[in-house]
Amino acid sequence: MQNNFLNRYTRGWYFVLPGLIAMLLIVAFPLGIAARFSLHDVLLYDFDNQWFVGIDNYIRAWSDPLFINSVKVTALFTLANTLGCLLVGLLVAFMLSGKRIRFKAGWMALFLLPFVMTPVIVGITWRLFMWEPDFGVINQILGFFGMTGPYWLTDSSTALFATALTNAWHLTPMAILVLYAALTTIPDDMYEAAKVDGAGAFQTLWYVVLPMIRAHILFVSIIIMTSAFREFDMVYTMTGGGPGRSTTVMSILAYNRGIANQDMGMANTIAFTMFMIMAVVAWLYIKVYKVNKEASA
To answer: Does residue 268 have a pLDDT over 90?
Structure first.
């Protein structure tokens, strides 16, 4: 009797235990190490000598103009990616969900191609073939219309736009995939009722489609936001954080502090600050998601 009682409340843990152990090893342990190093002065090639400094690294970081600049650059980069991916993803998903669209599987496979490429390959490809000032595709198109394109990646006024657009091109397929799946769950009756009421395409999108897929929009927005917020590979292969500091996102600044300056304490401080910012954003997302779920129930 007692064994049955224990099995009833412990059997489920056998199934989740491997996942919990993996989570502790892959996420919690490195996170704990990063948090510990952020409170110490640690040099890259001298890990044996560490000095506890408390929150001095955080005070130094937030009083450093380069760190403040990296926070602003990261915020702009993340915001541009999130809005761009959602708008384009929703538009493409809405078009693909149309009844008259043929070869949907083929179109979907074509739109998903950028997502299967690695960020490094995307960054190098766009740097060499799209943003190159003399023979790049972008400036060739502008030249066809009689305009002279700038030196996109070496001009501090255009470099962030170019890197954000490239990263959005890479992440938009995720938005297309999730939103297209969400659109297929909307009953045809809803579209027909909107048509009977005289609603046009924009009104149908605004008053019928968006309210029914807002949970999916919230979900994909947080995935894109976290992905863009921690982006390193693509930005580094395209600009290395330059020109100047115009594309130095927080992940690149952490890399520079840890590798170039050998200050692993500050590098971990920046990295852990990134984690805390994303933790707050994720908490807000869960709150908003619950409010939307209760409103739609």
So the answer is: yes
